Amino acid sequence: MKKPQTSRPLGAAHTALFHQIYEALRDRIQRGELRPGDRLVEDRLAEDFGVSRNPVREAIRMLSADGLIDVNARRGVYIAVPDPAKIQELVEIRAVLEGHNARLAARRGNPKLLAAAGRILERGQAALSAEKTGSLGRLNDEFHKALARASENESLSEMLGSMRLKSSLGFAMSDPVVQAQSWQEHAGILQAILDGDEDAAEALSRSHVLKAGDRARERLEAAQATS
After folding, report:
1. Closest CA relative to residue 29, chosen from 202, 196, 170, 211
2. Which pTM was predicted?
3. How far is CA 27 from the centre of its chain?
4. Least enclosed by CB within 10 Å: which of 6, 19, 120, 163?
5. What region holds the HTH gntR-type domain (predicted)?
6. What φ, ψ does residue 220 adopt, rounded to 5°?
7. Are 210 and 89 in contact (CB under 8 A)?
């Protein structure tokens, strides 16, 4: 006798939609496709995703809880404009975590995980050479996630994911010179890890984050001065 099929819990489809929209918007913010100050319109988002306004509204609530968007009853919904001082605090924490992560990746030297990071590095360098800069934000995020996996420390990887999310508003890159410098630094970090040089891997990774943080702070302070 066949067991009766269990029906999907009421609201499960709605919850899945909500998470899909949340993750899609969060990823676009992290990659710099949505910039601080950009406006989000519920009706337009619902149309883009092919859903009703309810899951869009819930996704917006969660993004607001993450500090990635600001919701104002009069002005509407906007990508949050980060505070330079807050970004600096996050950078200081992230630099320590990224540095230790690189040290662990060099110590463990997992060839499969490091090869995956190497393939992403090659794609980033190819995109840079072809001036396909639109994909660099996504590839940058993928590269850092690959290095986090290479540490083989799940708790550290989760902490880094949280730090990347919180600092992403200040880290969007559009200057081609800065993008080229960033990918050169990626190559140096990965080479130190492949060489098993824990000290160099940690130092280069920390420096990479701190330099990006300095650029972010300068850019945000300049924007505040002209607003």
Report:
1. 170
2. 0.81
3. 7
4. 6
5. 15-82
6. -70, -40
7. no
pLDDT digits over 68-88, tens only?
999 988 889 999 988 888 888
Angle between helix axes 42-49 and 12-30 (nearest 10 degrees) is 110
